[in-house]
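Quick one, tokens below. Sequence please?
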């Protein structure tokens, strides 16, 4: 288990810390640290504060992902999903939410708005080459697999 230093900012002092909601849950729920409700009109978006900053260990990231319930029931999702919090970022974690439904949606203080997954990061060394090895798939992209 990795340890992450978490700083609760003043505007989130009364909110619970992120928590796993079940024994095997992958994500910690992030809460809205808004002073007033934020209403997202259809196709509207907002940058929603969580009131949290953190110090991830080197070699880790936090992935901010949609909550399936918000997406399925209300059409509200994370716009840049998954959002990445880098290990060297020390500012407040905020979530870009978008309302893809045809009705307005209001976000209240303390509402669960996203989930955060702490994950290891693999770094790559890019090596430029003149050609790539051949595969059965080749350069077939978007929707090209599984077709005869």
């Amino acid at each position: 288990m990795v340890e992450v230093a978490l700083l609760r900012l003043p505007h989130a002092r009364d909110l619970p810390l992120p928590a796993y909601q079940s024994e095997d849950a992958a994500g910690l729920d992030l809460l809205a640290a808004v002073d007033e409700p934020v209403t997202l009109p259809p196709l509207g978006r907002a940058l929603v504060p969580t009131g949290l900053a953190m110090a991830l260990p080197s070699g880790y990231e936090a992935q901010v992902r949609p909550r399936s319930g918000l997406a399925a029931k209300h059409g509200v999702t994370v716009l840049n999903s998954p959002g990445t919090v880098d290990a060297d970022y020390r500012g407040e974690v905020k979530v870009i939410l978008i309302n893809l439904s045809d009705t307005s949606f209001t976000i209240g203080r303390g509402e669960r708005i996203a989930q955060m997954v702490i994950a290891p990061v693999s770094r790559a060394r890019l090596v430029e080459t003149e050609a790539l090895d051949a595969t059965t798939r080749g350069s077939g992209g978007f929707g090209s697999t599984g077709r005869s």
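The chain has one domain: 5-120. Residues 5-120 form a domain with the Deoxyuridine 5'-Triphosphate Nucleotidohydrolase; Chain A fold (CATH 2.70.40.10).
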